[in-house]
């Protein structure tokens, strides 16, 4: 159920349907990264064509359970019957377009924005690694809701697949500052190769973001 007390009734009342989405194809979903501000576009239509001068409202509700819907903007359709709005920075959410033709007549559409968190990773020590080394992961999860989130630490050899580090090294929870750490078991080296490292923040309850991964870091492992 949605309760709308902010959106005014439109002075132009001939519209009977709306088109709303991301990009020229009005896609109903979009994936983006934290910090970016994608644009949504809408258009009010009638049997006679586009509706100019229609008042429409844009609102959003985050992916958190029980979150409130909040108005982003109140716009008026232009000569082509459309509006465009750049979205604010935020988590994954549902965005609504609402057009009130009258007190009991409303046209509404919704789209979903899936936002990947910003995950930074440093691997120490710097430079080449040798037999017996224990590379250290230092992860920083950016943005709101960053505390106490699950992080997976992964590695990949040239001919292999990504794998979680074994045992207690494979996962950790971020601190109040969004920091998580881990350490690999000691390296057993029989030949030289490049080892890849990454951190993964999976989709998880209470965290309004999609799955996110860090930039891949590489280290030469020498025999």
**Total number of beta strands:** 18
Strand content: over 45%
Classify the secondary structure makeup into a structural class. Answer: mainly beta
* Residue-averaged pLDDT: 94
Architecture (CATH level 2) name of the largest domain = Sandwich
Helix content: under 10%
Uncertain stretches of 5 or more adjacent residues: none
Q: What is the number of helical segments per DSSP (H or I, 4+ residues)? A: 0
Largest sheet: 6 strands, antiparallel
Order of helices and strands: EEEEEEEEEEEEEEEEEE
Please state the CA-atom Rg, rounded to the nearest Å: 24 Å
Q: Span from first to last CA? A: 63 Å
Using the coordinates shown, work out and report the CATH topology of the largest domain. Immunoglobulin-like
